[in-house]
Amino acid sequence: MIDYERLNEAYERRGFYALQLEVGDVCRQKCSYCYMNALEEPKNTLSDEQITAILHDAKRLGIVAIEWLGGEPLLRDSIFEHLRLAKRLGLRNNIWTGGLPLADEAVMEQTIALADPGLISVHVSTVNPELYERLHPGASRNDLFTILSCVSEILAKGYPASQMLNSVTFTGLQPAEDLIETIDYFEHEFGIKTSLNVYHTYLRPGTLPGKLQEFIPSPEAVAKVYARYTEQWGGRELPMNCVNKQYCSANLAVLCDGSVTPCATIREKDAPTIHRQSLYEIAMSRRDHLIFAPFRERSNLPADCQTCRLTHICFGCRSRSYAAGQGIYGKDPRCYRHRQA
């Protein structure tokens, strides 16, 4: 799903490979741990005209893939118009959906047509109905069955399992064994691999500090999940990022409020905005910040990272550092390997 030749080329020239584009703030899945909950009032401010301009700037920047995010991107009325434009521009459409809108046959058909040869990713953090309801307060276990049914139908229509993912977030709200069961289910039932994120420490403003702790998985639980996750991807050790450091360094994001940041899960309050400058202008003037330029030197990594055997592919999750109040260049607080050193 990632064109590694083009990704590595973008990384080497200090350029950009992917654009994460939030096109809305609405979602029906009600995930209690979602980073969108960190906003006082999530509000989509991107007009259709601005999204069109962003896509043209992405092409000008040499970007290969658009990661369509929300909220739920498929709830935007004009989403397929934008997907069609991206495809005409030669950009790859990677669609990150919770999965519920795919129950509409017309939405599913257009998603399949406009994503190919890119990615369709759904979000199912557990296949346990009772736990699903606890992770999604106010939602029904029927939502889980709906998403699983949609995945089955997409595959039945001929979309390749190799171009699908189940994107999960691992929190302290579920045991490691449950997430491993979910990874197993998607692999054995559908032939679909899992994309793993470990909780980013974001909660809705006003949440009591003590409440945060229950969302944070233990290092032992993270290590157990990563053992199964590593096995799924061929047995090689994986970075603590949801992707490798080359991807993180060659990515930038436009949030639904117009902010331009290095990653959609880095919610910088003082970020420049496309309401004042074009994406191209911001990318050019803020390149070093957006590509984490200091981390190209091992000596600038956090102390524990400098001696890690995985520095060729990993510098920890910059978002988890930022969300934990350590800035984007701090130590990844969820990295279990620090505890094993």
Structural account:
Helix content is 38%, strand content 11%. By secondary structure, the protein is α/β, with parallel strands linked by helices. Strands 6-5-4-3-2-1-7-8 form an eight-stranded mixed sheet. Helix 4 (105-115) links the parallel strand 3 and strand 4 (120-122). Helix 7 (176-190) runs parallel beside helix 9.
Features of this protein?
single chain; 341 residues; alpha/beta; 8-stranded mixed beta sheet; 15 helices; 8 strands; globular
Please describe the topology of this protein:
Layout: H1 4-12, E1 18-22, H2 48-60, E2 65-69, H3 79-88, E3 92-96, H4 105-115, E4 120-122, H5 129-135, H6 141-156, E5 164-170, H7 176-190, E6 193-198, H8 209-213, H9 219-232, H10 245-249, E7 251-254, E8 260-261, H11 279-285, H12 287-290, H13 303-306, H14 318-323, H15 337-340
Parallel strand pairs: 1-2, 1-7, 2-3, 3-4, 4-5, 5-6
Antiparallel strand pairs: 7-8
Helix pairs in contact: 3-4, 7-9
DSSP summary, beta strand count = 8
Specify the biggest β-sheet.
Answer: 8 strands, mixed
Question: Which segments are poorly predicted (pLDDT under 50) over 5 or more consecutive residues?
Answer: none
Helix content range = 25-40%
User: Which overall shape is indicated by the principal axes computed on the Cα atoms?
Assistant: globular
- Spatial ordering of strands, largest sheet: 6-5-4-3-2-1-7-8
Content-based structural category? alpha/beta
Give the termini distance in whole angstroms: 33 Å
The rounded Rg comes to 19 Å
In N-to-C order, the SSE pattern is: HEHEHEHEHHEHEHHHEEHHHHH
The fraction of residues assigned to DSSP E strands is 5-15%
Q: DSSP helix count? A: 15
Mean pLDDT: 93
